[in-house]
Automatic annotation (TrEMBL):
The keyword Magnesium applies. Pfam families: NUDIX. Its EC number is 3.6.1.-. Its cofactor is Mg(2+). Belongs to the Nudix hydrolase family. NudJ subfamily. This is Phosphatase NudJ. It is an enzyme of class 3 (hydrolase). The gene is nudJ.
Amino acid sequence: MPNRWKPNVTVAAIIERDGRFLLVEEDTADGLKLNNPAGHLDPGESPIEACVREVLEETAHDFTPAALVGVYLNRFTRTRTGDDITYLRFAFAGTVGTHHEWRALDEGIVRTVWMTLDELHASAGRHRSPLVLQSIQDYLAGQRAPLALIHTDASVTGPG
């Protein structure tokens, strides 16, 4: 089967504290954008492990996923290259833990910011993807699924 379509698998964290959501401001080809702490699934890890890692790398906070908020499909065209990319995103809700102040944030991450829902709506033009707000709205609507829905076979993490 030539040219099999392979979406990019990503993970994102929905982290709420006192009515505010933890976001990252990141430097992109299209300027500074706001995003959930998020990133790509790496070889040998489960979506849950990827989310824990990405939150730590992008925010310097520990993260404990508690539920799957949703699985999202999004298509994006890169401004500079015109590349047509599709992302399959797993969004997790959970709790933020220890902040490791000594940790440098991932390359491209300028800072972390806690935002209210009103601030999120007001800044929608700066969101990296429409999934930033969509996943938070789904979270606020009470959308949750157990983490047990996501099964990672031992062949993924075991010896090749």
